[in-house]
Design brief:
By secondary structure, the chain is of the alpha/beta class. Helices cover about 30% and strands about 20% of the residues. About 0% of the residues have low confidence.
Length: about 475
C-alpha cells in the first residue's frame, strides 16, 4: 500500500493519494484544485486514479474533484447525505472501495457538516480486520475537532451538528489505539480552534491529548466545541456552495484569467469597479504602488486573506513581479475566485513613465512610534489583529479594529490625525494600510515588524489593565 500526504501550507490543507501497488488502482482524497501533483505521482507509480473522495463539502477551498473527474475519469465518492449537482457514488456506513490488497471502508462521521465521512484504510497484506489508518476529513483533527458552527452547514443548526459530532467521535474513539489519524487540516485552518502543527497522529494519542475526546456528557461537549471559535472568513459559505455545484475546471479558469493588460486597460477596469490586488512584498508595495490597489502578499496566507478582503463577483486585476502572475491567479482559483480579468503587463515597470499614478505608504519603526506617542500631536494607533490577540497584550493607547472589519468600521478612524497601523508581524498591517489608502486616507503609516518589534524593543504594553511600563500619556489623552 502507498499512502501519501500532500500538505498545502498556505491553506493548512492535507490531501491524500492511496494506491495498491499490486493492482495499480488508486484513490485521491480531498484534493486541492490544482491536481498535477496527483497525476504526476500516479503516472510515475503506474497507478490509475479510480476514485476521488470528498470527506465533506469543504468551505475553505475549492476541491479538485471536478478536475480529477474531467482529466482522468475518476468517480466522485461522497457520503449519502451529500446533495450535489454532479453525479456521485453515494456511500454509507460499512460500504467499501476495494482496490485489491487495499480496502477502504466508509465510516459516516457527520458533525462538522451533515454529509461528513471518514475512511478506514486496511492493508490486507498486514490485516483485513485491523485498520492501518483513518482519514478523518474535518471531523477529527490533531488536537481538535471540526467546528459545528460554520454557516456553510446550511439548513442544520450548530446545536444539531454538535450532537452529530459527539456521536461521530465516539465511533472514532472506538478504533484501535494504533490506528494512524490523517486529518484534512492542520494549524492555521479556521475549521477549528486548537489544531496542532503535527499532520499525523494515532487514535491512542488523541484519546490522551485531544480535549474533545475526553469523557464528558453531551451538554459539556457542545459548550466546549462551540466556544471561542475563530471568526470564519466570508468566502467560506461561497466555497461550500461552489463545491456542491457543477462548474468549469481550473484549466479553463486559468486560460481565461491569465491575460496581459496594458496600464490603460487596468485603469479602465478600475473605473468600472474592478479590484486591484498587488501581491508583492509589503516593503515593495509601500515603496511604490499603483493608486487604488491593495496589498495581499503571496508570501503570507494569501488565499485566505484574498477570500476575506476581495469580492468574488467583481473583476480582479493582479499586479505582480514578473513570473509570479500564474501563481497569484492559480491560488485565487484554489478558493474559487475565478473572476480574475488579467494582470498588469510588466508589473510596476508599466508605471515608469506615469509618476502621477504611483503612491507610497510610509513605514515607521517601533522606537520612532514610541517617541511620537509622547508628543501632543500623537498618532492614532490602529491594531488590526483579532480581538483575542489584542486582549492578550497591546499598546495601551491603541484602538482595535480586526482587519476583516476594517472597511465597515472605517468611520471610527479619525481623519485629522496621523494613523499608524500594526498587527503581529507586519503582513496584515500592510493589507490594512492599503485599504485605508484605497479609501483615500493619505496620513497612514505602517509599523515595521508590528507587535513583535514593539515587544522586542521593550516598549510599553498592557493586558487587562495591567501595564508593563509607563503609558503613552499624550496619545491616551486625545
Amino acid at each position: 500500500m502507498i499512502l501519501k500526504q500532500y500538505y498545502l501550507g498556505c491553506l493548512a490543507h492535507a490531501s491524500y493519494l492511496i494506491a495498491d501497488q499490486r493492482t495499480g488502482q488508486a484513490v485521491v482524497v480531498d484534493p486541492q484544485r490544482d491536481i498535477d501533483q496527483y497525476l504526476e505521482d500516479a503516472r510515475s507509480g503506474g497507478y490509475t486514479i479510480k476514485y476521488v473522495v470528498l470527506t465533506h463539502f469543504h468551505a475553505d477551498f475549492l476541491a479538485g474533484h471536478i478536475e480529477l473527474r474531467n482529466r482522468v475519469g475518476a468517480r466522485i465518492v461522497m457520503g449519502a447525505r451529500a446533495q450535489a449537482e454532479f453525479d456521485v457514488l453515494a456511500v454509507t456506513d460499512g460500504d467499501e472501495l476495494d482496490l485489491g490488497d487495499v480496502r477502504l471502508q466508509i465510516l459516516e462521521t457527520p458533525g462538522h457538516t451533515p454529509e461528513g465521512i471518514s475512511l478506514l484504510v486496511f492493508d490486507r497484506t498486514r490485516s483485513d480486520t485491523i485498520p492501518q489508518a483513518v482519514l478523518t476529513g474535518d471531523t477529527l483533527f490533531i488536537g481538535d475537532v471540526g467546528r459545528p458552527d460554520l454557516l456553510a452547514s446550511i439548513g442544520v443548526t450548530a446545536d444539531e451538528l454538535a450532537e452529530m459530532l459527539y456521536h461521530s467521535l465516539h465511533k472514532l474513539r472506538a478504533l484501535p489505539d494504533s490506528t494512524l489519524v490523517y486529518p484534512a487540516h492542520g494549524a492555521g485552518s479556521m475549521c477549528g480552534k486548537n489544531l496542532s502543527t503535527e499532520t499525523v497522529s494515532t487514535i491512542g494519542e488523541q484519546k490522551r491529548f485531544n480535549y474533545a475526546l475526553q469523557p464528558m456528557d453531551l451538554d459539556e461537549f457542545k459548550r466546549l466545541v462551540t466556544s471561542e471559535q475563530p471568526e470564519a472568513p466570508d468566502y467560506f459559505v461561497y466555497d461550500a456552495i461552489k463545491n456542491r455545484q457543477e462548474r468549469a475546471g481550473l484549466d479553463a479558469t486559468l486560460q481565461s484569467s491569465l491575460k496581459e493588460l496594458r496600464l490603460d486597460e487596468v485603469e479602465q477596469f478600475k473605473q468600472q469597479g474592478a479590484q486591484l490586488v498587488d501581491v508583492r512584498e509589503a516593503i515593495d508595495f509601500e515603496g511604490a504602488h499603483l493608486a487604488g490597489s491593495i496589498n495581499i502578499g503571496l508570501t503570507g496566507k494569501y488565499a485566505t486573506w484574498c477570500g476575506s478582503i476581495l469580492n468574488h463577483d467583481q473583476p480582479i486585476v493582479v499586479i505582480a513581479e514578473s513570473g509570479s502572475e500564474t501563481e497569484a491567479v492559480m491560488r485565487l482559483g484554489r478558493i474559487g475566485f475565478d473572476n480574475v480579468a488579467g494582470f498588469l503587463e510588466g508589473g510596476m515597470t508599466a508605471l515608469e513613465h506615469h509618476p502621477e499614478s504611483i503612491r507610497t505608504i510610509p513605514r515607521i519603526t517601533a522606537a520612532a512610534l514610541a517617541e511620537q506617542l509622547t508628543e501632543v500631536a500623537a498618532p492614532f494607533v490602529l491594531d488590526v489583529r483579532s480581538a483575542k490577540e489584542w486582549n492578550s497584550g497591546h499598546l495601551e493607547c491603541s484602538h482595535n479594529i480586526p482587519l476583516t472589519h476594517l472597511r465597515e468600521r472605517m468611520e471610527e478612524i479619525p481623519v485629522d490625525r496621523p494613523i499608524v497601523v500594526h498587527c503581529e508581524g507586519g503582513y496584515r498591517s500592510a493589507i490594512g494600510t492599503s485599504l485605508l489608502a484605497e479609501a483615500g486616507r493619505t496620513n497612514v503609516s505602517d509599523l515595521v515588524g508590528g507587535m513583535k518589534a514593539w515587544v522586542a524593543s521593550k516598549l510599553p504594553t498592557t493586558s487587562d489593565g495591567v501595564k508593563t511600563t509607563t503609558p503613552c500619556a499624550a496619545a491616551c489623552s486625545q
